[in-house]
Every structure is written in C-alpha cells, then in structure tokens.
Specification:
Elements: E1 6-13, H1 17-28, E2 36-39, E3 50-55, E4 67-69, E5 71-75, E6 80-84, E7 89-94, H2 95-109, E8 112-114, E9 120-123, E10 128-132, E11 135-145, E12 158-170, E13 179-184, E14 194-203, E15 206-215, H3 221-234, E16 242-255, E17 267-269, H4 285-300, H5 313-327, H6 333-342, H7 346-353, H8 359-366, H9 371-396
Parallel strand pairs: 1-2, 1-11, 2-8, 5-13, 11-17
Antiparallel strand pairs: 3-7, 4-7, 5-6, 9-10, 10-11, 12-15, 12-16, 13-14, 14-15
Helix pairs in contact: 1-2, 1-4, 5-9
The structure holds flavin-adenine dinucleotide.
Flavin-adenine dinucleotide is lined by residues 13-19, 39-42, 44, 49, 51-53, 117-118, 146-148, 248, 250, 252, 271-273, 283-285.
Length: 397
C-alpha cells in the first residue's frame, strides 16, 4: 500500500552538484523555516569529481579550494601563451567539500532525504507530485529537478566533452604550482574534433593531469590511457617517479540542442539538465553556482525559485556557430582558442565564456576568430534553423 506523500515547500530532485550548491546557498542566505526535501538514489559524499572554474577571489569558496592560480598557460605546437587572469583566478574545487557543505545545510534546514529514484513529476500548476515507481513520495510547492536527461530534441551539432584525468604524485618536484595549464593542444588531434591536455597542480609534486576531447563520441578505456601516457610523455614526466593516486573521468554534452529550463509551471531544471553546461566549452560550475545563488535569494525574499537562464540567447547562438565551425572542419580547434586568448585580454574571454559580457565585448571576441569559416558556419546554422522550423511547421499542420 502506498503511504501519503510528504508535503514540502521545495523538493530537490537529484542531489548532485547543482542541488548541493543550492543547499549551501540556502544556508548562506539564512533561509530558515522552509520545508525542503532531497530525492536521489545516491547520497553524494566524498570525492567523485573535481571542478575547475574561474572567479574573483575573496568569496565563500576561498577556504575550500584545493588550489588557485593567477596565471594559466595556453599551449600550441607553435607557442606557449602565459595569461595573467587578474582580477580573476582559475580555481580547483574537489567535490568533497561541496557535498560536506550541502550536508551541513541539510542538518541546519532539517531537510528530508528520500533515497529513491524519482520517476515522474506531476505538476498541476499549484503543487508537484513526485513519484518514485508507483509511490507518490512528496508533494512540493516547487521542484528543482537536476536529474540527468537528454535535451528536448537533438541539436545540429551533438558533441561531448569527454576526458580522463590522473592525480599524479611525483617523488621529485616536477610541477609549477604557480601556474595551471588551461589547454595544451600539442596532443595528437582527432580526425573530427579537438583534443588537449591540461595540468592543475596542487603543489610541485602533486597535480591533476587530464586528457580531454571535444568530439562526437567517447574513447575506449585503453584509448584514454594511451592518450594520457602520450600526454605524460609530452610533459617530460618520468613514469618511474610517478604514482597514479586517483583516476577521474566523465563526459559532458557540448551541443546546441535545447534544454528545457522550466518545463512546467512549478518545475525548474538546474545543472546540466537545465542548460547550465556551456555548449562551446563544457564548463558548468559557474552557471550552477550563479543560479544556486539566485534561487536562494529568491526564496529568502519569498519569491518563486526561478533563476535567470544560464546563458543569454545570443551566447547560445554564438556557441552554435562556433561548434558548427569546429565540427564541419572550417576552423581548427587549437587555432580557434589560441587566437581567442591572443587577441583579447584573458579576463574578457573568461567572462565571455561565463555569459556575462556586454554585446560590444562579444563583438570584439567574435571578431578575433577567422572570419570566412565563421561566416560560412553562421550561414549554415541559419539555413538549418530555417529548415527545421519549416519541417516543424509542416508537421504541426
Ligand atoms: C568527472 C567530472 C568532472 C567535471 N569537471 C567540471 C569542471 O572542472 N568544471 C565545470 O564547470 N564542470 C565540470 N563538470 C560538469 C558539471 O559541473 C558536473 O557534471 C556537475 O556535477 C553537474 O551537476 P548536476 O547537478 O547537473 O549533475 P550531477 O552532479 O551529476 O547530479 C545529478 C544527480 O541526479 C541523481 N539522479 C539520477 N537519476 C535520478 C532520479 N531518477 N531521481 C533522483 N535523482 C537522480 C544522480 O544520482 C546525481 O546525484 C564535470 C563533470 C564530471 C562528470
């Protein structure tokens, strides 16, 4: 027999990165007296991912960062650019402290945990019934849904950012702890897509070294390992002096497909499912954090927890064009990113990637790319959009 659902003001369906940041933000903004529940078959704890992102130093994350750098390198076969990020920094945050903060917030807020997979959200416009299997487990005034899900329909370009990283401990000092390597394009480039390595040093003997591809499909296990061995050798690291302490891998969508951020009146999607992953880079953390803050501020002020879209529409359009140019081979990835950082202050590029630049700055960023392939990609994108709209129009007749 099904028991009656528990009534709450806010249900977080999915308790990963996006939900953890919301819980911590509710605590930070002093929200109390709100009935909150989290539904997730897994209670996330400890280290299951490492977030790299940029921001302004001097905020609540300072005490929990594993490392941060004022300078980063962008490396191609031709040259090594050293970029000064001031007033920003590039930072590394492991998931452990983020989940710990969420757990602390759960205690303070008296959060109800439902350890189950939510299967359906029935929104009648006033309340949302959250079901796990056949059982209605919660009745919530608002749902923040961050369960992984595909976009509403496939995009015109459907890539992944897929990667594997090794946490490498060396018995001699081999890393420059003052600088991270943001993108190192000396890795062999795939036939379709872009590859790069990067290095996030915590000390001169300990670093996360990753191999990443932006391309249509993941590699095999052996493929990632071979790529990492190649990159380790490229860095001149001696395997006899290294220990792989941990392995981290994952895949993130890079697509111009639409993600529904507000699928029904009282359901809001957050995280990757809500479109927080920037299509041209896979970076997600900053948008999740921004939206978590907006949600908490809204609830603290008694307003609906509906954040602004993760990125402005014009940014999504620019990303669609850039992805298309990279995918159709009009633009080489290493050349694209090298020019972007060479012809703009690093801070402008990073703020652009966060979706917080002005149109004038965006014009400057876009005009630093090679003109003719971008014009071709813009025209191709426009033609595809028109075609798709005509097909949808015919279907709905
Ligand atoms: C290894 C890795 C490294 C990353 N590194 C970076 C980075 O450096 N910088 C960056 O900006 N982004 C990074 N990302 C991308 C992004 O920031 C993360 O994926 C982030 O965790 C996304 O948060 P989320 O809440 O959308 O998804 P998740 O954190 O994956 O959370 C989704 C949650 O939904 C739960 N769930 C699944 N099904 C159900 C169900 N039916 N009912 C209820 N709950 C369910 C899952 O158990 C999970 O806890 C990385 C991603 C990965 C995988």
């Amino acid at each position: 027999m099904n028991s009656a659902p528990v009534d709450v003001d806010l249900a977080l369906v999915g308790g990963g990165g996006a939900a953890s940041l919301v819980l911590a933000a509710l605590n930070r903004h002093g929200v109390r007296g709100l009935r909150v529940a989290v539904v997730d078959p897994v209670h996330r704890r400890g280290q299951d991912r490492t977030w790299a992102f940029w921001d302004r130093p001097g905020n609540d994350l300072d005490p929990v960062l594993s490392a941060s750098w004022r300078q980063v390198e962008v490396v191609t076969a031709e040259r090594r650019q050293v970029l000064d990020l001031a007033p920003l920094r590039y930072a590394m945050l492991r998931s452990g402290p983020v989940y710990d903060r969420a757990a602390e917030a759960e205690r303070r807020l008296g959060v109800t945990r439902v350890v189950a997979a939510a299967d359906a959200l029935d929104d009648d416009g006033e309340r949302v019934l959250v079901r796990a299997g056949d059982a209605p487990v919660l009745r919530a005034s608002w749902v923040l849904d961050s369960r992984p899900r595909p976009p509403r329909r496939p995009g015109r370009t459907n890539w992944l950012q897929h990667f594997r990283g090794w946490w490498l401990a060396s018995d001699t000092p081999v890393f420059d702890a003052d600088r991270a390597v943001l993108m190192d394009f000396r890795t062999p480039q795939p036939a379709r897509g872009v590859s790069f390595g990067y290095v996030l040093p915590v000390s001169d003997r300990y670093a996360l070294v990753e191999y990443t591809e932006f391309s249509p499909a993941p590699l095999t296990d052996a493929g990632y390992d071979a790529a990492l061995v190649g990159y380790r050798d490229l860095l001149g690291l001696d395997p006899a002096r290294l220990t792989v302490r941990e392995v981290e891998d994952g895949a993130i969508p890079m697509t111009d497909a639409p993600f529904d951020a507000h699928p029904s009146p009282r359901v809001v999607r957050l995280g990757t499912a809500g479109g927080a992953t920037r299509p041209s880079t896979g970076f997600t953390f900053s948008a999740m954090r921004r939206q978590a803050d907006q949600v908490a501020r809204a609830l603290a002020a008694g307003r609906p927890p509906v954040p602004a879209p993760a990125y402005p529409r014009r940014h999504l359009w620019m990303d669609a064009v850039a992805l298309r140019a990279l995918d159709r081979g009009g633009v080489s990835g290493p050349d694209f990113f090298d020019r972007l950082f060479d012809r703009n202050p690093a801070e402008r590029v990073l703020r652009f990637l966060d979706g917080v630049t002005s149109p004038a700055e965006e014009l400057a960023v876009m005009s630093s790319t090679r003109l003719s392939p971008m014009v071709a990609a813009t025209a191709g994108d426009a033609a595809d959009r028109l075609r798709a709209r005509l097909v949808r129009g015919q279907r709905s007749r």
